[in-house]
Specification:
With 50 residues, the chain is α+β, with helices and mostly antiparallel strands. The chain has two helices and three strands, in the order ββαβα. The chain has a three-stranded antiparallel sheet. The termini are far apart.
Amino acid sequence: MVKYKCGAVIKDVPKGSEKWYKMAGWKKLETTKKKEEKDNESDSKEITTS
């Protein structure tokens, strides 16, 4: 499932239906896992150095 947003509405959309949401003007939301992983890496570095 991929998250799409239109205004204040956020909806989980199956990958097969993505093209219809794009045609309707919905915007795809980026995942925040990358940011969380970076935060976890920096936390672990701080713990190991102190």
